[in-house]
Amino acid sequence: MRIQLLICLAAAGLVLSGSAVVTADRAAAQDTPAAVVLRAASTAEAQTSGEDPPAPPAETPAPPAAEEDAPAAETEPTAEDLFAKGRDALFRGEYTQAIELLGKAVAADQTKTSYRLHLARAYRYAGNDPEAEKHLEKILQTAPDHVEAGQALAEICAAAKRFQDVVRVLEPLLKYRHDYPTYHMLAEAQYNLGKLDQARKYYEEAIKLNPQSASDHYQLGNIYLAGNFFALAADSYQAALRLGLDSPVLHYKLGSAYFNLRNYFGRIAEQAVKSGEPGTIHQRWYLIEPVPGRKDVFRCAPETSAVYQIAKAMADGIEDRPDIHVLRATVYLNARRYAQAYEMFTETAPTVPDEDKALFHYYYAQAAFGTGQYDRYLQLLQEAIKLDPQAYQAGLVDAYLRVADQHNEAGNLDKYVEYLVRAVAESSQTTSLHLKLGYAYEEARKHEQAMAQWQMVLDLEPDHPQRIELLNLIEKYRAGVALSVRPSETPKPDTAKPEPPPPATQ
Questions:
Q1: What is the domain range of residue 198?
Q2: Which end of the chain, N or C, is less surrounded by CB atoms within 10 Å?
Q3: Residues 83 and 207 in one domain
Q4: What pLDDT, in 10s, does the model give residues 400-425?
Q5: What count of other Cβ atoms lies within 10 Å of the Cβ of residue 286?
Q6: Residues 233 and 100 occupy one common structural domain
Q7: What does the alpha-carbon distance between residue 191 and residue 195 come to, in Å, rounded to a whole number?
């Protein structure tokens, strides 16, 4: 009976209202199955007895299940994000990180030249030029007008002294942009390749765009000097000086330009310089020599002169080389200050290298001539001829003539004839020399020798412009013997008795 009741009650429990089912379900979380059955039976009994069923115990809400932290879904950074972070790392000086981030940005989007350009810069800052060069080349392959990439690549090539590559990279970019860095690097490259005409053109364009570049003015001056455009060279060197580029070599080259312009001493002025010394620089003047009778007053050359610039280079510490001393001595020589020039050449002579001795002896000889040392002049010239006969042998005849003329002006006829004879011996088929020697013999009253020289003139040049004159001279001196008084032509004394003188008048 009890078992049936339980079954019936259980069956009755199955048809409880929905709310009861919900309640039972909530209790199931805490009660055992047996407790559930007993409560259901108790309720059934109350219903059959007509009593209200007891109120269910207060429901204890089940604690909410602990929520687990679900991991956030990771999103991949975009190429732009990688580029931004890589660029920041680059300018913070974190080159390794910059290379990593920018490399990923390039891999994510290979169409952005800005990504690759910054990656190339990172490699350059990190000292890895080969990798930088690869990326810059790729930029130019896809964007031939990318001037920034071309300039960066040209800088790498220039640093490696690959000047032909600099030209290859930059010249095509000129049709896209005319700017100073491109012209400057092209000028430098062509200069180092020895293509001075192209270098000059590029330097001139660079200076138009950046007239304040002292180094460009200096290099342009070098090109002008090498091309013998001495006035342009001087202007360029002066511009470099005004812009602050000051070096002993620059002063030396400016002095060379002035020298070739024959601006040896410039406009000489007199300046008072207390305790001054000749041959030194004082402010903007070169002290040439003291003014006689005036204490502490000197004749001075201005800074726009060869002698000033050469002395300035020496005073500022240019390498002590013989060629600099020779140039300074030659300035004095060409300014006709022969005594000082000869002294300078004499001091420099022991230090002159063998390859420069021929030219040195030639200039040294000119200084000796200027001081009146004619034998020394010829001796030094002979030394130059021995060292370089092709260059100086032809000058020996003129040297003999110069010495001969000096003796002639001094009234030393014998020496005049002597050096003319040497000149004729050196160039025996030169009619003008025979003619001049003939007149010298005539002046010395050596008519036989004179006639022989004039006859040689006519033999060498039968149609000589002075043919008739020479024939007459030859005939004149040939007839000289016949014009002398012969014994048969001597008048005999008159043996007739002389007439008495007329009588004196009263």
A1: 79-243
A2: C
A3: yes
A4: 999 999 999 999 999 999 999 999 99
A5: 27
A6: yes
A7: 6
